[in-house]
Amino acid sequence: MIVTLKEILKTAEEKQIAVGAFNAPNLESLQAVIGAAEELKLPVIIQFAQCHEVYNPLSLMGPLMVDFAKRAAVPVCVHLDHGETLEYLEESLKMGFTSVMYDGSVLSYEENVKNTKKAVAMAEKTGASVEAELGSMGRRESGAGDGSGEEDDTKIYTDPAQAKAFVQETGIDALACSFGTTHGIYLTKPRLDFTVVENVRRETGGIPVVMHGGSGVSREDFHAAVRAGVRKINYFTYMDKAAGTAVAKWAASLAEGQPAFYVDAAAAAVRAMKENVKEAMGMFALMD
Questions:
Q1: Short-list 158, 161, 160, 169, CA closest to 130
Q2: I need a surface site. Which of 56, 125, 181, 280 has the fewest CB within 10 A?
Q3: Each residue's pLDDT tens digit, 98-143
Q4: By C-alpha distance, which of 27, 130, 4 is closest to 19?
Q5: CA-closest candidate to residue 42, choices 17, 24, 5
Q6: Within 10 A of 63 (CB to CB), how many other CB atoms are there?
Q7: Known catalytic membership, residue 146
Q8: Catalytic entry in 67, 81, 103, 264
Q9: 230 SS3 class
Q10: What does DSSP assign to residue 258?
């Protein structure tokens, strides 16, 4: 059943949980995420990030994601993650995406507001929801970094007072906040400041807060984030890593001279991602 982000976040707020948002840049990840959600009977958000265009184009994955959502036995939001241009947002909305994120976090505050307002006006035409970002997690969605393991001093924590003005000016449905997380693999233990989330919630009258850079965060910190007011948690890197590890293990198990078939490797990847996603969804929904 396909639904909007606003509808899913309303349920999350009522239950005081967070809903998992998982990137699906290929068929295998899409199968794993929907399968996990149906097995746990939990709502889910499937996402396509603009930076994943290099693996499979939105023109291919977008319609597939919408079709999977419509056929699913649980509520599914189809969301564009980290849309960097308004043209790309419009492309996804025409495909039937029920939510889009405009990422203007690297722009000036004024430019971010201006473009986010345009994104909201575009989404209103199809009834879709809009997420935006204020602050910066240092690395971009691809998780690219210098590999040094040093703390990323380019992070800009979200200012709650500025968040209040941003939400009021733009009319967005959810706000991605920077409170210490980082995209990609964590090189050092994250230092999360949950008071940022609490203060953003208070200043904005309860805007659903989105946590980016969720992979690798401890169970305790996930629970603390949800209690602070996080209602959507983006998760991909460790799910993808689980698939890679499973394929490597499968390949190593082959006897010498035994042929390797891609369909078997893909099946191993789906199984691993599904289990990893189930574990993550359980944490976000405070089931453990």
A1: 169
A2: 125
A3: 999 999 988 999 999 999 999 999 999 999 999 999 987 654 544 4
A4: 4
A5: 17
A6: 12
A7: no
A8: 81
A9: strand
A10: -
